[in-house]
Amino acid sequence: MKKHTNILVLILSLVFIYVLLYFSFDQKAVFWYLYTFTMLVGMAFAFAFGKIEDKIKTWEYLLFGIGFGTILYGLIALGYRLLPFLSEELLKTVHQFIKTFGPSTLWHYILLILIIATAEELFWRGYVQQQLKQYMKMPYAVILAAILFAMSLAVSGFWLGVLAAFITGIIFGFLYEWKKSMPIIIVAHLVMITLLFLLLPLY
């Protein structure tokens, strides 16, 4: 009975989050407010129904978090540098997405760093991935959670972003299962987006 209830809550939470994400990307003028609200709802689901673990020391999650965040930024930056050799149109889609939805004010950066990055990891890795593990083996749960995470960007129509989100979801998902530490993937996520949008922006 409990498993049936858990899967029902999971499905309803995903539907609710996807609907909110659709409206977030559709309403460009208030995107940052709607997206932040959506992630706060996801965070609430994570705290209510998820499994948030932290089984390692502070120095270890900082070391691994900074390391993996930097590596992920490097992979994204490498992919971006290769785009002109593959397709100018693909490069234009990246520029258009960043121009439309990328952080452009101090308030956006505050929301991104203090709320959004943390909430995304709590919901997708701390809640969705952990719920899926009740019904399938861990590697499949990580992959499916990464697919569901990537689909959250599909409503924007930015397919390169979907691919990047899937790869990021895979890495963060297995990292969480390996180290059993939510702070690791939150730090990694924060490092990645800080490099990506603030310190070493691609565009």
UniProtKB/TrEMBL annotation:
The chain crosses the membrane at residues 7-25, 31-49, 61-86, 106-123, 143-176, 182-202. One of its GO terms (biological process) is CAAX-box protein maturation. One of its GO terms (molecular function) is endopeptidase activity. It comes from the Bacteria. Keywords: Hydrolase, Membrane, Protease, Transmembrane, Transmembrane helix. Residues 104-192 form the CAAX prenyl protease 2/Lysostaphin resistance protein A-like domain. This is CAAX protease. It comes from Viridibacillus arvi.
